[in-house]
Amino acid sequence: MLLSKFQIDLVDSELIRDKFAGTYILNSNNEVAIIEVSTSHAVPTILKRLEELNIPKESVKYLFITHIHLDHAGGAGTLLKELPRAKLVVQPSGAKHMVDPTKLILGANAVYGEEVVKKDYGVITPVDQSRIISCSDNQVFNIGGRELTTIFTPGHARHHISIYDSISNGIFTGDSFGLTYPELNIEGRRFYQPTTTPTAFEYDKMVESIDKMMAFNPKLLFFTHYGFSDSPKDVEYQIKKRLDDYVDLVKFNTENLELRLGQYYINECSNFGIKLSSENILKLFEIDIKLNSMGLILWKNR
Ligand SMILES: [Zn+2]
């Protein structure tokens, strides 16, 4: 399998549903980097997977989070308690919120509602300042000869980073290059959509960041939500097109946006050849419809 050829392992966080969010484990000569944690609920699964891969906890050198939204970073503090040598690599403006997650939790409560945060997003453990590396753009991290380069990729969030891997010639894109759900797959071609989650979505920055990543000439893109693509150009085409479509949806008014965005996904999926019922498409995009609408309205009104 392609991932094992590059010593990359993908662990399903089982957040919300199967294959919605994941964690990547990268190995090189017995040094390990983990990219993304999801929530504290995923920590036992990640630890079990390390054990299955015969990776001692001491071998984990870095834990990268692409940004501090809870579906990527919520479990970071909990996981770091289990990994004695690992340092957390995070963009400087995200770092303080990992040390003191108060604002992060309040922000999540505002977006998802307190009940949902309590149920789905687990325990948020503060990270000790001494465990944090505030990275810079284009900083290279080495694990066993494998080079991982941070790329600042704002647009989804101001403090978003992506990570370029020298071995696979792939980029771990977090939420900066859209999402893809395994259910939306037709004859091997996958459907991709941008994510404009509140509160910091910026159209221009997202497009610039996509161009910046494409300048690395990646052969692979690894998505937190969920899986990978070996056709970055197809992903770029789909994401840029749908990003422009989103903008068209809010250009003249923001009324009934959730309804219109839902209908948009139904039409796009049908044009793509996906044979799911409208009801199932709306269910699959339930969170995206809500969050993307909120983010687009905030961006439009700014
Ligand atoms: Zn996310």
UniProtKB/TrEMBL annotation:
Organism domain of life: Bacteria
GO molecular function, one term: hydrolase activity
UniProt KW keywords: Hydrolase
Domain Metallo-beta-lactamase: start-end pairs: 20-225
Entry-linked CDD domains: ST1585-like_MBL-fold (cd07726)
Keyword Hydrolase set for record: yes
Name recorded for this polypeptide: MBL fold metallo-hydrolase
